[in-house]
Amino acid sequence: MPNITKRLHAAFLEPLEDAIEWHSAIGVKPLSVDLALPNPPRLRVYMYSLVSGGTVRPNEYKGVLRVPGQKVGDYGSFDHSGGRLALLVAYREDLDVFVLWDASLHPRFKNGGNVQVRDYTVHGAAALGRARQNRPLVSGVVEAVIACQSCNLLEALRDRVAWTGGFDRTVASGR
Fold first, then answer.
1. 98 closest CA partner among 68, 67, 61, 142
2. Residue 77 bridge partners (DSSP)
């Protein structure tokens, strides 16, 4: 498992290299990343493999959710504390596609629960560099799911923050 974590985190950090001020150890989940302004400054990245199959609809990819310390059958949640924006990201190496969901819309999930994205969104990002899908949730909220290739990751992160409702730079900087 740690090798997968390291590979996923390295794939996330590589395209952001010039914007990174600091990051936590790449073998530890979640990954904390501080980016230089005007980028989203303090991130907590929950990174998963983007897998196909096993969903209700065969034309979807998914990220299977688990957080550190979460036992099978237990519910978990993403840590939004400490002035860090929690990011929910999955990566498909063979397509070089990252998918970013709105972590704030997934406040509680069972170990092994998943988030989905349509295959045409992933394939569109692989072919064109970026794609977006509006995904209706059971709650009635429509989630903007962003998919991109690594060359567009920084721009996609900015969009994710904007569509999530912004980010308070005053809180993030500790002022």
1. 61
2. none
